[in-house]
């Protein structure tokens, strides 16, 4: 009986292997998307990317995989909150209806924390790979809990927080104020970024952080929070739309806070005038304050993701993508690029198919999502001429650039680069086009601003009190002496006069 079953089993396995060698394997890509353009990975950005993905994969793997695609979305579901109510239901319904015919399925998440966590649990139960773009929830990084999840986009929260912490540590800055401006937050990025940064600096990195929500276009409000910041820190982190940074820097100049004693660190994740705005002092001098703003910007450092390399493949892809996007009602600006979060869908698919092809070639099981996800980790991939590094935890490592303005031209130029791979962190100086190291130039000073001035933030430290007491005592002393001397002289003159007169009378 047992031997008989064993024989049948072998026979079936052999049959499947023969068949799969001959016919392409059916693979279905399942996309859960948010409609609209309210997040960096909403349908208007990610759908055209995923369309190009399908075309390229079909061309590359034609004899090997028979690729089909299912997009699950709802016209009326445009925010992560709305999606969190739906995504498990959508996934479950799709899975049980389709899994019989399409055992090899791959999920692409929408880029929403809650939805990713619940999809992650289902993907584990079904043993299917789940590729996620943005991830704001550190718990999804726990791959013991979510063994089939690969996080393929830069992780704006944890990655940004640790990049910021490294920058602060480099200059011994321990006390920071975070000013958050949530105006024009088209992609709903700034508020979560502020919260995560504030929490993680305090709780993970033991940095004393205070956070205020400020309205940069209201001068009184701005002055109020700058004064607050002044009394507790010399390092001020700015999170907000690019167009809000100039007014903040001008306000700081007005408050006497751009004299070189302060440093401002603003985040511009990637260049996108339309979505994130641009950090710039230059306005064609519309308000007559360009020079003042240019000087104020000398106290500013900018933290950005390392820009996407403009390889030939990438430029071709962007042309196709911009065309595609018009089908979805989105029109890219002339110098607008695809954001790195939506671009990560392309990397995700390219990487997964490379690993699936290896798996098929070795005759291994494509239905084992845990095994596929493990195979992805701890490697670098070449996609469109870009090096994409996935660490041992199945997360993509981000690379950051820190820039400051050139004192003469006022253009931003990179000064430091941070790269991490597999937990090995590398900080390097940037090099100019002439091959020389870019020096960091501190405004009005030959060293980085101190974390705390010698006399404290309010100039009230004990030793300074003693000093100022000594100084006032000295001033009182001098005044008293002057008064006494003058008094004596006057007395003398008066006396001389009276003596003279007395003599004349006599
Ligand atoms: C590819 O899959 C589709 C269904 O998804 C099917 O109709 C078609 O016959 C398959 N093609 C091949 C070559 O297997
Ligand atoms: C979307 O919402 C509108 C109005 O609330 C409703 O009329 C429409 O049927 C909804 N569409 C879908 C696809 O649910
Ligand atoms: C946190 O920082 C303070 C001041 O720099 C220091 O006294 C304290 O020991 C630090 N705490 C930890 C847990 O590192
Ligand atoms: C910010 O301040 C400006 C100018 O005072 C005002 O018009 C605007 O409504 C304020 N924005 C918010 C969100 O309060
Ligand atoms: C500055 O930070 C240290 C801990 O890093 C803290 O002990 C100190 O109170 C902070 N100063 C102010 C003014 O918040
Ligand atoms: C798939 O894998 C095989 C075996 O490793 C390799 O020869 C082939 O080039 C791969 N196909 C693609 C499109 O990468
Ligand atoms: C760190 O950066 C330097 C200069 O770019 C490079 O030579 C070195 O290999 C890097 N180290 C690691 C561990 O990546």
UniProtKB/TrEMBL annotation:
InterPro entries: ANF_lig-bd_rcpt, ANP_Clearance_Receptor, ANPR/GUC, Peripla_BP_I. Its main location: membrane. Keywords: Glycoprotein, Membrane, Receptor, Signal, Transmembrane, Transmembrane helix. It is found in: Membrane. The chain crosses the membrane at residues 469-495. It comes from the Eukaryota. Coiled coil: none annotated. One of its GO terms (cellular component) is membrane. Residues 1-22 form the signal peptide. SUPFAM superfamilies: Periplasmic binding protein-like I. Residues 77-405 form the Receptor ligand binding region domain. It is a single-pass type I membrane protein. GO terms for biological process: signal transduction. The keyword Zinc does not apply. CDD domains: PBP1_NPR_GC-like. The keyword Chloroplast does not apply. GO terms for molecular function: peptide hormone binding; signaling receptor activity. PANTHER family: NATRIURETIC PEPTIDE RECEPTOR 3-RELATED (PTHR44755), RECEPTOR LIGAND BINDING REGION DOMAIN-CONTAINING PROTEIN (PTHR44755:SF8). This is Atrial natriuretic peptide receptor 1. It comes from Hypsibius exemplaris.
